[in-house]
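tool_call: predict_structure(chain=1)
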Amino acid sequence: MRQHLLWALGLAIILACQPTDPTSPLGTDTTDTHITRPIPPPGCGDAICDATNEDTTNCPGDCGSWCGDGVCNENEAHTLCPQDCTATTTPPTGCGDGACGDDEDTTNCVADCGTWCGDGVCNGPETTALCPPDCDNPTPQPACGDGICKGSESTADCPQDCGDPGTPQPHCGDGICNGNETSATCPGDCGAPKPQTSCGDGTCNGNENTVNCPQDCSQDFPAPTTVVNPNVHGFVDSMGNNNGAITINGWTCYQGQDAPIELHVYLGGDVSSGSFFKAILANANNEQAVNDACQAGGSHRYQMAMNAAEVSAHAGKSIYAYGVSMQGSALLSGSGNFTVPGGTTTTDPNLPFDLNAVHWLHVNVSNWPVTANLSSVTFQGGSICLNYDKANSWPSVSIPHSSGTKNVDVVANPWVFIQHGGQWYGATWEWLAVGTKCRNKKAVAGDHIKQPPFGPMNWKPTSGETLYFMVAGLSRFSNIKNVSERSNIVKVIWP
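tool_result:
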C-alpha cells in the first residue's frame, strides 16, 4: 500500500513539472492551431496607412508588404526573399495547395495560412512591446563573471569583469579613447573633431541634396529602369482628393541613407509602358516607423500634387511610382493600385457596380482591356473552375513554390467581387498556372485574400450569396506581372 502511494506521489510531481510551451498562443495548450487574427484598427481599409495604429501586420491593405519587411508573405520563399523567409521549417504535405489544412498553420505554411501577432513566432515588425505573446522573452541581465563590465558592476563589486580596484580607471588624458570619451569631450585621447560638412564645400554629403544645396549636389538623378536596386524602398500609400485636384502620397528612401531621394511618377503603366508625369524630392517630415524601415534618419515622405487640369488630362490612368537614388531605382509597393479620377465609365449594365467605384484590395485592373472570354464558372466536387480561354496563351512568369523546392509557372490571378458594408470590393485569391482553370473551392476565402476587411474577419462565402468572378493577368502584386489584360465578369450564386 505504501509503495502505491509513493508511486502515485512521484507521478503527480512529474506531471506537475512538465514545461509549458512559451510560444503557444494559449500559454500551455499547444494543440490549438486555430489562432485568432488581430482585428484591424479603426480606419483600416481607407487606403491611408495611419502610423499611430496601423502597420504591415494589422492592416496590410493600407500599409502593404514587401521583401525586407520581416514578414514571409505568400509570394515569398527562402530562395526569393531570404531576409524574410527562413529555410528551417519543412512545410507539411499539401502546403501551397491554396487551403490552410488541419496540419498547417502560420509557422509551417505561411503561403496558405499567413502570419500575424499571436502565431507563436516573433517576426516582421513584432517586438516585446507590440506583440508580447510572440516576443515576450526577457532580456538577459548583466551577470558578474560574464567577462563584460556593464550595468551596475564596478571594480569594487565585480573585479573579475571590471578589473582590480587598484588598477587606474579610464580617464581623459590616459592616451586611450575609451568609455564615454569622444573627439569633442577628449580630443587629447580621441583626436581633433572632424570638420562639419557644410553646403559649399564642394562635396554632396550629410543631409545635403539637389534642393537644399545645389552647388554641392548639382548632379541629376538618373531615370528609373526596370532593374531593381534592392536598397530602394517605399510605398504609394494613399491618394488625396480636393475639389478636382489630387495628391499622391507615400514615402521612399535609400536604406541606410539619411539624405532624401527622388520620386518619379509614371501614368498609364510602368516605366516600360507608361508616360512620365513628374519628379519631386521625397523630403517631407515622416513618422518614426518610416525611419525604422529606412534604417536611417532624415525625412522621406512625399506628397505629389496634380492640379485639376492635370487630373482632367490624365483621367482614368493608373499611377506607378519609383524611388530614384544616385545608385539606382525601384518600383514602389502600391504602384498600380491607384487611378487618376475620372475618365470613361466602366459600368457594365449587367453588373450592380461600377469598376471605378470598386475598392481594389490588390492591383487596380479597372482600366485593363477585356481580351479574355470567361465563358462560365462551374463547381466540380471540391473545386471551382473558371473556364477562360487564355490559360495557354498568356505569357507565364516563374515564381517560387511555397515549399521552396521548385518554381511554378503562373499566367493569371482569379478575382472575386464581394459586397460588404454597402461597398463593393475586388480581390485576388489564388494563382493560376499554365493550362490551369480549377482551384480548391475553399481558397475563395479571407485567409487567401489576406487583406482587410476579409482577411482578419476570416470571411467565407455563404450558400446562396451572390458573387462575381473574373480572371486577369498577374495582378496580385504590382511587381509580378505579365499582361495588363482581363476577362469579362461572370455572376455566380454560391452553392
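agent: The longest strand covers residues 407-420. Proceeding to next step.
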